[in-house]
User: Fold this.
Amino acid sequence: MKFEFSLPRNTKNKAQNMVINSNDRQHQTDKAKVTRRIRTFAYWHTLMNKDKGRAAFSPSNPCEVTVTIYSPTKSKLDPPNLYPTVKAIIDGMTDAGMWVDDNYKVIKSMTFKYGGLSGEKGHYKLIFDIREEMR
Assistant:
């Protein structure tokens, strides 16, 4: 199953920003506000779009997650640098019941990929491809 998130990156108007790069030098209070905003958005987005008839991933039914990141600009992008954003989304998905917990027994692997340009000015696109673990 796939989930797509389009998140604005606005460094001038911090109240609109929903992307955290690990290279950002933010005050912890500002970072916490953005993290909470992302997590809440991911919760509602997941709740509305998940298969409600499917059981949550668990240690007995683990998954693998591939995160493909699309950039709004042609500048070089290091996809794992968006891990703080991805972590907030994963936590929101946990809150929405996608998996019982986001530990290593449930999410067996997480892979980051660059997907190209997002096609939307000022927005990153993150696609989460979630699959049952191949045993």
